[in-house]
């Protein structure tokens, strides 16, 4: 079947070639995203949970496998003696030529009231060496200077104060204006200033006059990765698929699952910053080899111990001490960061960049304000307006929390966000949306307002990286063996309810709370019999809002699988891509989800002037 699909594509490719000079006809022939392949309508159902109708958390929180590497394991250990560790690349920057390399030296200081060293006068270096080429027979050797920062997690809460954390040195060096499609080996400064290590990565292509085609372009996509044994399987499988760039949709270290006093003492809602250090060690083999495009998730917020001083609406935090997203911001500055903004929260939340010169990626932080009038809203609208589909035909969006999925946990948690953004994604013809948060895999068909629509984005949920919280295994449409109802019907607003309408509050966290003022286009169903209770999305087995309550897998859900894994997207041309999902338990030889996406230009929203058209 797959071969059949590819054969069809080969014909399509010929057809496109032949039609290239008659673009109007081409537009009439094609619609936007078509899916070709065996897996387009496959439905996979999880094994039933033992007690699912009553305590749905049991199904995913208590897996004996859901354990991070114990502190001291070689996989997460590093030397604090001064050699670089936790090397990671961020990029590409919007110019398509610049990357950021970051790493650590030394170890943290953990005590009451540590004081920060003044690192502002310290300079650090990274040296890159291009392989010899025809134009530079001895290779190109460039050295870049950068800066060192630290951050301080100063706990004011007396229960944590003794465990305040001063980070190791965090080195950031901007590798400006590298040559596209070039393999570089690189070295970075140790604490003593000498270059150390032997890393390598390949820059992404950048189409230009005379440059070879940027296709095929391989993009890895993963989320909610954590630091368990399952995480390292995801890492190794991703590595063996050799992506040119990796999109990571947020939730990295899960350091906030620990008590400040010990990186082995679980405490959901706490935070132990040493778990960020181990995270950077565990993921170095991938992150030092392929540039990563991160966004923050809820586990990057880390309010524990400092919550009382946080306001997400007044921007009253100050770098480098005690602000939300602090560890994330210090360790993973976004592409586009300059020497002046490295480590600054204002620069660390959302960004747009271009992959291989052909795919625009617009990255939201859905844990800060995104409503009309907010800075993020104004910024994103401008980014959408700037996209030139002739130059960059592919348009992707990423943010952490999944909009379209059918798992019980976090079901419908993005109604508020979507009430603002879904129409905008549609209007600008977004091809694919990448999400995580839901610890499982799901891919939709192109969908708009819960209806299949070939001109709408395809939504991919890959919160299946393998983190400590384990898998989500229950679907909203599962029929409970005890209540004979679906999840949607079986829970009430007063219980621990997947049927409670959660939403990400602009300016707040992912939780039920007062309804944000600007979600007015979402119609909420009042909770049955609970005066003033939280709204619920589904009552009494009816379907008050299309798609809210399901008794079978909705037809916009193409494939779902409650397993760990990662996705690979191969852009093959301006119009075709192969998308695959690899399940950890199956390996990388066979993809469990494997489809070809054909961008179809008959959709007004995705219509692009072809290169031929623009010159006529
Ligand atoms: C840090 O050192 C630089 C010069 O090395 C100095 O200009 C700056 O004022 C110092 N900052 C603090 C907070 O002491
Ligand atoms: C590149 O240049 C740096 C700085 O001059 C030097 O230390 C390093 O050894 C050189 N690397 C190679 C591979 O020549
Ligand atoms: C913090 O350390 C001080 C001094 O060692 C000690 O007296 C105090 O009990 C500790 N507090 C906690 C909560 O561990
Ligand atoms: C660096 O690693 C590469 C393989 O990745 C190897 O070919 C090369 O010899 C190493 N260079 C040094 C200086 O160790
Ligand atoms: C997670 O890792 C454990 C330990 O290696 C393994 O037994 C288990 O099957 C993995 N689970 C998944 C869903 O990949
Ligand atoms: C879009 O990009 C194409 C190709 O580079 C260029 O010719 C065209 O002028 C651009 N359109 C706009 C509106 O900038
Ligand atoms: C809601 O949106 C309006 C503009 O449409 C804006 O003026 C207002 O500040 C927003 N209110 C909130 C609470 O976000
Ligand atoms: C569902 O609604 C019907 C009709 O309104 C009503 O008769 C029935 O009692 C309701 N069932 C539940 C479980 O609320
Ligand atoms: C999908 O399901 C919806 C709602 O049940 C229905 O209206 C629609 O016709 C279905 N679409 C397809 C393509 O089957
Ligand atoms: Fe999350």
Automatic annotation (TrEMBL):
Coiled coil regions in record: none
Taxonomic superkingdom: Eukaryota
Keywords attached to this entry: Glycoprotein, Hydrolase, Signal
InterPro entries: Calcineurin-like_PHP (IPR004843), Metallo-depent_PP-like (IPR029052), MPP_PAP (IPR041792), PAPs-like (IPR039331), PAPs_N (IPR015914), Purple_acid_Pase-like_N (IPR008963)
Residue stretches making up the Purple acid phosphatase N-terminal domain: 84-203
Catalytic activity reported: a phosphate monoester + H2O = an alcohol + phosphate
Domain Calcineurin-like phosphoesterase, chain residue ranges per copy: 217-441
Position of the signal peptide: 1-20
Record Pfam families: Metallophos (PF00149), Pur_ac_phosph_N (PF16656)
EC number of this enzyme: 3.1.3.2
One Gene Ontology molecular-function label: acid phosphatase activity
Family membership noted in the UniProt record: Belongs to the metallophosphoesterase superfamily. Purple acid phosphatase family.
PANTHER family named among the record's database cross-references: ACID PHOSPHATASE RELATED, PURPLE ACID PHOSPHATASE
Protein name per UniProt: Purple acid phosphatase
Organism the protein comes from: Volvox reticuliferus
């Amino acid at each position: 079947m797959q071969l059949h699909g590819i054969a069809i594509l080969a014909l399509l490719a010929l057809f496109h070639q032949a039609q290239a000079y008659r673009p109007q006809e081409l537009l009439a022939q094609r619609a936007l995203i078509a899916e070709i392949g065996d897996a387009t309508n496959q439905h996979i159902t999880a094994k039933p949970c033992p007690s699912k109708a009553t305590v749905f958390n049991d199904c995913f929180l208590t897996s004996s496998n859901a354990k991070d590497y114990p502190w001291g394991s070689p996989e997460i250990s590093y030397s604090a003696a001064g050699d670089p560790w936790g090397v990671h690349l961020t990029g590409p920057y919007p110019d398509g030529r610049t990357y950021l390399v970051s790493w650590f030296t030394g170890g943290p200081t953990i005590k009451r009231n540590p004081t920060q060293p003044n690192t502002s006068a310290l300079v650090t270096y990274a040296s890159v060496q291009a392989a010899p080429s025809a134009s530079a027979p001895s290779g190109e050797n460039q050295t870049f200077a950068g800066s060192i920062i630290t951050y301080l997690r100063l706990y004011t809460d007396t229960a944590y104060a003794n465990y305040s954390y001063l980070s190791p040195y965090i080195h950031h060096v901007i590798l400006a204006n590298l040559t596209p499609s070039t393999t570089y080996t690189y070295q970075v400064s140790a604490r003593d200033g000498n270059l150390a290590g032997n890393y390598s990565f390949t820059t992404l292509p950048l189409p230009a006059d005379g440059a070879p085609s940027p296709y095929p372009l391989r993009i890895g996509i993963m989320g909610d990765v954590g630091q368990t044994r399952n995480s390292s399987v995801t890492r190794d499988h991703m590595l063996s698929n050799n992506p040119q760039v990796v999109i990571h949709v947020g939730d990295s270290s899960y350091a906030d699952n620990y008590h400040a006093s010990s990186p082995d003492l679980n405490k959901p809602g706490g935070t132990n910053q040493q778990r960020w250090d181990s995270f950077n060690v565990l993921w170095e083999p991938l992150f030092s080899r392929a540039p990563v495009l991160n966004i923050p998730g809820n586990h990057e917020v880390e309010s524990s111990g400092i919550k009382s001083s946080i306001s997400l609406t007044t921007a009253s935090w100050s770098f480098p001490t005690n602000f939300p997203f602090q560890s994330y911001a210090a360790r993973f500055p976004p592409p586009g960061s300059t020497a002046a903004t490295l480590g600054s929260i204002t620069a660390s939340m959302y960004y747009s960049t271009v992959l291989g010169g052909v795919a625009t990626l617009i990255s939201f932080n859905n844990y800060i304000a995104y409503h009309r009038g907010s800075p993020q809203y104004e910024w994103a609208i401008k980014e959408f307006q700037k996209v030139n589909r002739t130059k960059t035909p592919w348009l992707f969006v990423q943010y952490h929390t999944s909009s379209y999925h059918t798992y019980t946990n976090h079901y419908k948690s993005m109604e508020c966000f979507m009430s603002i953004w879904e129409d905008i994604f549609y209007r600008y013809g977004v091809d694919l949306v990448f999400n995580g948060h839901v610890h499982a895999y799901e891919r939709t068909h192109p969908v708009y307002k819960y209806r299949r629509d070939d001109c709408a984005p395809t939504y991919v949920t890959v919160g299946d990286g393998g983190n400590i919280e384990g898998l989500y295994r229950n679907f909203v449409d599962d029929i409970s063996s005890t209540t004979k109802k679906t999840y949607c019907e079986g829970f009430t607003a007063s219980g621990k309810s997947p049927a409670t309408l959660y939403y990400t509050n602009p300016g707040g966290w992912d939780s039920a709370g007062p309804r944000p003022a600007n979600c007015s286009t979402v119609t909420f169903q009042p909770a049955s019999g609970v005066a003033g209770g939280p709204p619920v999305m589904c009552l009494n087995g009816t379907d008050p809002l299309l798609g809210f309550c399901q008794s079978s897998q909705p037809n916009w859900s193409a494939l779902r699988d409650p397993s760990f894994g990662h996705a690979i997207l191969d852009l093959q041309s301006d119009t075709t891509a192969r998308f695959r999902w690899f399940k950890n338990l199956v390996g990388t030889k066979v993809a469990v989800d494997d489809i070809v996406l054909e961008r179809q230009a008959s959709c007004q929203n995705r219509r692009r002037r072809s290169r031929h058209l623009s010159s006529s």
